[in-house]
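Recall the central idea of this unit: under ordinary conditions, the amino acid sequence of a chain determines the structure it adopts. In this exercise we apply that idea directly, starting from the sequence alone.
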Amino acid sequence: MQVKAERIIPVFSKLFAIKILFLFQKLKYMLKVGVLGAGHLGKIHLRLLNESDKYELVGFFDLNSENAEKISKEFGYRFFSDLDELIKAVDVVDVVTPTLSHFEVAKKAISAGKHLFIEKPITNTYEEARELIKLAKEKGVKGQVGHVERFNPAFRAVVSRIENPMFIEAHRLAEFNPRGTDVPVVLDLMIHDIDAVLSVVKSKVKSINASGVSVISDTPDIANARIEFENGCVANLTASRISMKNMRKSRFFQRDAYISVDFLEKKCEVVKMKDAPQNPDEYAMVLQNAEGIKKQIYFDNPEVSPNNAILDELETFADAINNNSTPIVTLEQGAEALRVAKGVIESFSK
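Accordingly, the structure predicted from this sequence is:
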């Protein structure tokens, strides 16, 4: 049986039109992005943004021109020797420079009307962070802070189950690495846990007591902080960058539940208690308190879905821009984490 050409051509034309429309819609929502800083983390951002379907990587800027030209030659990313030129060419500026330069470059980007993704800590001082927030509102641009542990698959798997925690314990220990020692361990490591805690405790900070010790750096290398909230919750946080092994674990205790998150191994555990039945199963784990109340222990561990946390934080920011929604980690939240972190540092001298 022969099929007439005049019947086939319209079908192909329609499919071609649909494909063109799809590509147009894809390009429409791809945001032009430029990266400021091409160090260790900056190179990771460059690679992920270059691979993302939600961004078009325009190029990057770095003060170390020799290193920048080497990266440009090796990976094909365009190197801008002029910061203002890069900012002008993009929709989104991704700041991955050293903390001390965050405020200056972020202010340039926001003043130019560009959306801002900025690595943690948001700035060097809380006052600088508040100024960026005010400027972003005036310019009508969105901002997100790179508190990447919010996107850790283990934390994401259990965060909806953390309800009114009353005691939190976190240990973030790392082997020594000269990278990051330009800031205290609180701003380098502990701030991750500070942000995570603030995201689940729906109460204001009441008091902070902390101690820190400088071992091989000019700023504290190991620190412990006790943060009390107005609702009675207490968070005990420990951070060290001079440990013999790496550890990133947090434990959340709440009424009838214990939740553990291993940020490093990307594992989690949820242990719950409920009133024990009259005739529990012979293998059931049952506890009885002094008043004779019996509770049965059971495990309710959610599935952890593997992901690339850095890619997720970058792409959810693109979604927030395109959908005009609130970023997952706002500039305000980044500023609050910094405020509490500074409170920990100030407590060292009390």
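Residues 150-347 form a domain with the Dihydrodipicolinate Reductase; domain 2 fold (CATH 3.30.360.10).
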